[in-house]
Amino acid sequence: MRTYEQRLNYEKLELIPTTQSSLQDKLGLVVSGFQKAWERLVGFFELSSEPSVYHTSDASGEWWYVYEPTTGRSFWFATEAEVLEWFDTRHYRQGRLFE
User: Fold this and answer.
1) How many structural domains compose the chain?
2) Phi, psi of 29 (to 5 degrees)
3) Range of the domain at 10
4) Whole-prediction pTM value?
């Protein structure tokens, strides 16, 4: 039977993640997941008329998601430049509405 030190040394030499570090990694992932979920939940209930912008990427590339709470509409863009252009036209449209 191995001692605790022998087992840790064996795991280190064989590049086997130790139970403690593996548990810490998993706990870190869980905490990170809860933090992201909390931020989105707070953002969902936040009473703001400002658009929300999320940047994401997947196998097909990078994407920008914009949600406009005043109208309830959402938009997908392929580039940051398109998002900025949308903001510019949105500001122009809102200005025209109130003239």
Assistant:
1) 2
2) -65, -40
3) 1-46
4) 0.46
